[in-house]
Every structure is written in structure tokens, then in C-alpha cells.
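Re: that chain you flagged

S.,

Sorry for the slow reply, it's been a week of failed gels. I finally had a moment to sit down with the sequence you sent. For the record, here it is as I used it:
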Amino acid sequence: MSKDQIPYSAADISALAKSLRGQLAGRERPPGHVEMLNMLARAAGARNFQHFRAQAAHVEALEPAQAALAAPAEMGPARVEAALRCFDARGRLARWPAKPSLQALCLWGLWARIPAGRSFTEGEVNALIKEAHGFGDHALLRRELFNRKLVSRTIDCRDYRRIERRPPPEALALIRRLPVGGGKADA
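Prediction finished late last night. Pasting the C-alpha cells below so you have them in one place:
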């Protein structure tokens, strides 16, 4: 009988180790297979292994949709100009563009405003996003940053982190031209 492979990753290996150490403390014998699966799932922020597996299936179902919305490889200067028109004079995202390729580019402008190398609660991420946009839908932007793999979060949404990667050339051009956040991208 073949088993479904479920990817497992931890944004913070130290937090994972602390959680496992706490769950294993005081045990007289090692945990069984199912107990260990539940411990690993809890260390990753899920309630138990079934919850973790359900979340993994949900993310897997999103993958094709994300691929369909991925920005085209060649955007060019015209797209950068179009994306810049979505931002106000202070560098805040003033409107959410209709085109997925422009949405992807605009998200890099928000990504640049998130400090690198820090962990944030959902409330702190919401505050950063609220400050960085002006159309009143921080939940949409937070979700899109996660879906486009610009931020990571634990399954329970308690810990958010900016994913460090080099922005594509068009995103770098956009970030550099925005009044606020232009120098924050570590690229």
C-alpha cells in the first residue's frame, strides 16, 4: 500500500526543537508512531496530524491555481509603469490591480516593506500591511503574500516571516522607484 507523501517544513527550527523537547519531557518510554506524528504536527502549529494532513491537502489543491496566476516571465518597463500607477505618492498601494501579473508585481512593493529576518504575529503583519496600502483589504494582501510565497506562516497563522529571495528584475525596478520601501529589499 503506497502512502501519500506530505511535505513538512519548519520556518523556525529552534521553535520546532523547543516544542518537541517540551512534548517529550518526562516520558518514560519513546512515543509510538501516531504519537510522534501528532507531536511533529503540533510543533508545526497544527492541532494534530489529521489537521496537519488536511492543511497540506488544502495547500496542494491551491498549487495549480497559483501556477495559473503566476506572473509572466517577461513583464518589461511598461508593466513597471503600470504597477507604479497603483501606488500613491507616499509609496502605499492605493488600488488592487485587476491583472494577476500586476498584482504579483505590486506584492513585491509590499514585501519590501516587511523587515527581513523577523518573526511577526498576525496582528503585527496586519499592521504593516494596513500602513502599506490604502484600499482597506489587508486580509486579501496578507493572503496573497502567502499564496505567492513572499511570506511564510505556521499552520495556525501565529508566526509570519518574510521569505528571503531575490526579486525579479521588474520587481527590483518597482521597489527602487517607490518612495517608501525602496531601500529595504535585500537583493
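What I noticed first: Helices lie at 13-24, 33-43, 49-69, 76-84, 100-111, 122-132, 138-147, 169-177.

Talk soon,
D.
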